[in-house]
Every structure is written in structure tokens, then in C-alpha cells.
Design a protein that fits this description.
CATH superfamily of the largest domain: Ribosomal protein L17
Oligomer: single chain
Distance between the termini: 160 Å
Order of helices and strands: HEHHHEEHH
Helix content: 55-70%
Strand order of the largest sheet: 1-3-2
CATH class of the largest domain: Alpha Beta
Structural class: mainly alpha
Shape: rod-shaped
CATH architecture of the largest domain: Alpha-Beta Complex
């Protein structure tokens, strides 16, 4: 009886399925990215990720265990060398499945399965997560005090405005004084000839 055996058989017998997944895992480790159907990619992810975890511990037992699944010395060497260094700090989730649409022949769901640490474009786009801060009404010491710079900037702006107003007022006063002086000086010059004329008239009258 096969009660509870609900994994995808991929329309293949057990030896055929095992050989296919072994070859796909070797191709993924060597090429870092392969194109296949979504069903095969999901089955491959369950098959290859335990091998990648095993590669973090470089021992003879681990190498023999991985070789029993992959049956390829070149793949095992690359897995325990270059790939193990890349995934050393990752706790899991070594692969990524990106869907690419349907195949023209049989309309099967196609995708790309790749090793996460070898996609440089997505690694650059990833940004560090912001530290979450929580406010509490009790006023604990967990939240650091934040300096309020709005008041200081407002004071500085007010001082600048006052300085501009004073300079403008001084300029207006200077202009007004200059105009007054310009208006007064001709009147003084005109008064002197009139006084001389009056004196000459008085002298003639006395004669």
C-alpha cells in the first residue's frame, strides 16, 4: 500500500527519478542556474538543499554521503570548495525558483532554479533592514532621546529675518536723509542773493 505517499513521482519510476534528480543537482552545482519545469524544480529543491547543508561540514563521511547522491567527483569537489564558502553563513534556503511562463509545446510551467548566493543583481538590491524602535508610555530607557532641532532652526531663521529688516530700515533712513539734504541745500543758496538785494535797496533809500 502507498498510503500517505503524496510526493510527486514526476511520471517516472524510482530509479529513473533518482538518476534524473542526481543529474539535475550536478548541473545546478556546476552551472549555478538551470531552466526546467516548476514541478521538477520543486522536487530538485528538496533533493539538493540537504546536500548543500551537508557540504558545510567538510569531512570524509560528508563527502562520501554526498557522492552517493551525485555520483560525480567534479561536482563534489566544487560543492565542498567554492559553493561551501559562499553558503557558509546562510542557515538555509540556498535555492530560488523564478517562474518564466509557459512552454510553447505543451504549455508546461517553466522556471529558473538558481543558487541564491550567486545572483549578484538581487544581492545588490537587498538593503539592510531598519532597526525597529518601540515607544512606550512608561518612559523606559530603551528609546534613546531624540534631539529636537526644529526650535533651533526657527530661532536662527528669525534672527536672519530681523537682521534683513534692520538693514532695509537703515537703508531707507539713509535715503530719506540724503533726499532731505539735497532739497535743503538749494534753498540756502537762493537766500543769500535775496538778502544782498534787500541791503542794496535800503542803502539807496538812505541816500
Amino acid at each position: 500500500m502507498r498510503h500517505g505517499k503524496k510526493f510527486n513521482h514526476l511520471s517516472r519510476t524510482a530509479p529513473h527519478r533518482k538518476a534524473m534528480l542526481s543529474n539535475m543537482a550536478s548541473s545546478l552545482i556546476l552551472s549555478k542556474r538551470i531552466t526546467t519545469t516548476v514541478a521538477k524544480a520543486k522536487a530538485l529543491r528538496k533533493y539538493v538543499e540537504p546536500l548543500l547543508t551537508r557540504a558545510k561540514e567538510d569531512t570524509t563521511h560528508s563527502r562520501r554521503t554526498v557522492f552517493s547522491y551525485l555520483q560525480d567527483k567534479q561536482t563534489v569537489t566544487m560543492l565542498f570548495g567554492e559553493v561551501a564558502e559562499k553558503i557558509a553563513n546562510r542557515p538555509g534556503g540556498y535555492t530560488r525558483i523564478i517562474k518564466t511562463g509557459n512552454r510553447l509545446g505543451d504549455n508546461a510551467d517553466m522556471c529558473i532554479i538558481e543558487l541564491v548566493d550567486y545572483n549578484e543583481l538581487m544581492l545588490k538590491e537587498a538593503k539592510p533592514a531598519k532597526a525597529k524602535t518601540r515607544r512606550s508610555r512608561r518612559g523606559g530607557s530603551s528609546t534613546a532621546p531624540v534631539e529636537d532641532t526644529t526650535v533651533e532652526t526657527a530661532v536662527v531663521e528669525a534672527e536672519v529675518v530681523e537682521e534683513e529688516v534692520t538693514t532695509e530700515a537703515e537703508a531707507v533712513v539713509e535715503e530719506s536723509e540724503a533726499t532731505l539734504e539735497a532739497e535743503e541745500t538749494p534753498e540756502v543758496k537762493d537766500e543769500t542773493p535775496a538778502a544782498d538785494a534787500d541791503e542794496s535797496e535800503e542803502k539807496e533809500a538812505d541816500k
